[in-house]
Amino acid sequence: MALSLFSRTRPAEPPTVEPEPWPETGETWTPEGVTVVERYANQAGAVVLVFSADESCYYHVVACLGCHYSQSNDPDKRYSSGLTLTEAGRFANAHATSCHALPRDIPARPDDDTARDLLRKWVRGMRRRDEDVHLSFRGFDLERLFLQRTNAWIETELQRLADDEPTVLYAKRSEYSGGRLEFLVLRQPGN
Length: 191
Fold this sequence. Notes:
The strands form 2 sheets. Strands 1-2-3-4 form a 4-stranded antiparallel sheet, with helices on one face. Strands 5-7-6 form a 3-stranded antiparallel sheet, with helices on one face. It is α+β, with helices and mostly antiparallel strands and 191 residues long. A hairpin with a 7-residue loop joins strand 6 and strand 7 (181-185). The protein is globular and about 50 Å long. It contains 5 helices and 7 strands; from the N terminus they run αββββααβααββ.
């Protein structure tokens, strides 16, 4: 009897829950490359998303699908490494209670060529005159709803850009992060 009190039993697997369709569209939308954590409705019924593009779901982004509001850092903090879920929920709720934008259509997933062009345009736009810029995947978090691609796809395309345009982007294997690729957006020439 005493032995049965201390025996280990595995808990039952939690049931898989399918996301519910959005009331205003009747569709369920989970863009590739992001994990939608929370949804809020603004004053006119547009959805305000809280999502993460990080596999660990530590950093979160808030994006309104009615207006063009998006937030990935707390502007009240001098140094911010990203929004926690609590902070993102606070920003999403505050925006949802004050936004009166009408719902827009769910962003269409671009084809690979269009997504590749967007990525290259963003990287070129990150160039500075006075310094090289270390590029991380978090740099693309605000654009994830337009890009709708995974980190693996982005990494492959960044490597391709570094091979095609070595004066714009430099890629190397990191000796500190287990050989993962690191990217450096090179400063504009002539400085």
